[in-house]
Amino acid sequence: MDIKTATEIGKCLSNETRFQIMEWLKEPEKNFPPHETLKHFDDGVCVTYIQEKAGLSQSTISTYLTNMEKCGLLISTRHGKWSYLKRNENTIGKFIKFLK
Q1: CB 56 within 8 A of CB 65
Q2: By Cβ atoms counted within 10 A, which residue in 14, 41, 61, 67 is the most buried?
Q3: Which long-range CB contacts under 8 A does 4-7 form with residues at least 24 apart?
Q4: What is the pLDDT of residue 41?
């Protein structure tokens, strides 16, 4: 990991809501219902559920999640019209290692 990527991740995590999203996604089964179609969390949590839990507008959450995905914190998977997000544990591990 380079300093530019680490800085972008740091910026993402400096916002309380974005940090909470990362916490919620650590244990999605404790924080979200499974999506009615998939019934599991293998591909992550439906963006709609994240937006509802955060209590922010769709446009704000969309911006947050897009930035988190761009810096590598989240992985997005699409099923039909639904988008699902999960933590990118590989990037998180590299970030932690970089900080050490």
Answers
A1: no
A2: 61
A3: 5/71, 5/72, 6/95, 6/98, 6/99
A4: 82
Residue type at 54? A
Q: Where are the domains of the chain?
A: 3-99
Q: How far from each other are the two terminal CA atoms of the chain, in whole angstroms?
A: 12
Percentage of the chain surpassing pLDDT 70? 100
Q: What is the pTM of this model?
A: 0.90
Residue 100 to residue 52: CA distance in whole angstroms: 35
d(C-alpha 48, C-alpha 3), whole Å: 32
CATH number corresponding to 3-99: 1.10.10.10
Q: Classify the C-alpha dihedral 40-42-46-52 as positive or negative.
A: positive
Angle (deg, nearest 10), helices 3-13 and 89-99: 110
